[in-house]
Amino acid sequence: MLKSVLRKLYKQKRNMLTQTEKEKLQESIYQQIFELQTNDIHTVHFFLSMRKFNEIDTQPIIDFFRDKGKRIIVSRCNFKDDTLSHFYFEKDTELELNKFGVPEPINAEEANVKDIDLVFVPMLISDEQNYRVGYGKGFYDRFLSECREDTRTIGLNFFPPIKKIKDTHKFDVPLDSVIYPK
Q: What is the rounded distance in angstroms from the CA atom of residue 19 to the CA atom of residue 70?
């Protein structure tokens, strides 16, 4: 299927999840993350969940990594050029919603993208080759192309991968892996 069709379909599927279903699916995702080998990970980038889009709640994962002594980084959107700026996310970092409802840090120290060891990536759906469909602006593809070659990338999704996304292109960045409920 094409990205535009998948984007519409999986937004609908995600919005149809009940709170109970979502919590059960998240528990499976959390358990897989809590079992990851992270000794070589020092700095982790997270997306902050957009509740209005029924995204996976990343706060329990952030708390888990913070409790393990990892530095946490989150982003702010630059809508003029569809890029992301990155900031350390401390317990006292204040957040505000941008015009699309994305929580963003407002009083945080800027971080260097080259310091990131692991990135958790939002998505609507992925395929068996670990390409993903996001919201269509390319923020994460641009960001991931700036990361170090050895930076691990893990997508988080409520749904198992489909066979193939038909319209991937050279600027799409495949992920190292995708975690979804088993």
A: 30
| Cβ-based neighbours of 112, under 8 Å, separated by 6 or more | 86
Full pLDDT tens readout for the chain, 182 residues: 999 999 999 999 999 999 999 999 999 999 999 999 999 999 999 999 988 889 999 999 999 999 999 999 999 999 899 899 999 999 999 999 988 888 999 989 999 999 999 999 999 999 999 999 998 778 999 999 999 999 999 999 999 999 999 999 888 899 999 999 98
- Determine if the pTM surpasses 0.85: yes
Residue 153: half-sphere exposure toward Cβ, Cα within 13 Å:
20
**Residue 138 Cα distances to 69, 72, 141, 145, 172, angstroms:** 31, 22, 5, 11, 8
The residue count of the chain comes to 182
Judged on CB neighbours under 10 Å (0-12, 13-18, 19+), 72 is buried
Structural contact between residues 30 and 36, judged by C-beta atoms closer than 8 angstroms: no
